[in-house]
Amino acid sequence: MKPLHEIIRKPLITEKANLLKEETQVVAFEVARSANKIEIKQAVEKAFDVKVKAVNTVLQRGKVKRVGINLGQRSNWKKAYVTLEDGQSIDFYGV
Question: Can you tell me whether residue 11 is helix, strand or coil?
Fold first, then answer.
């Protein structure tokens, strides 16, 4: 298995992700594009000591951006929605 920091890049702390976390126990992460659902599940369980029920992945296409007269494109990236078992939670802030 790859190191955890190569599979899970960062948690997504957005308005939508926070609502999902509070209402349905789903946590969103930015993950490596080469990571599959099994690797993501094992990495989250090992890193945060929780039980994972399901993993859904989405490939986000990079936006086309303009800088002056030049056009460029951001890189594509992968997002994972991790559903936790009942009674499990992840606290990113540690407060």
Answer: strand
CB-based contact 53:83 (threshold 8 Å): yes
Can you name the residues that pair with 60 across neighbouring β-strands? 77
Question: What are 8's two structure tokens?
Answer: 């899970």
CA 37 – CA 40 distance, rounded (Å):
5
pTM above 0.85, yes or no: yes
CATH superfamily for 4-84 is: RRM (RNA recognition motif) domain (3.30.70.330)
d(CA 92, CA 8): 14
Task: Report which secondary-structure segment, H or E, holds 20.
Answer: helix 15-24
Average pLDDT of adjacent 10-residue blocks, the chain of 95 residues? 88 94 94 96 95 97 95 96 94 75
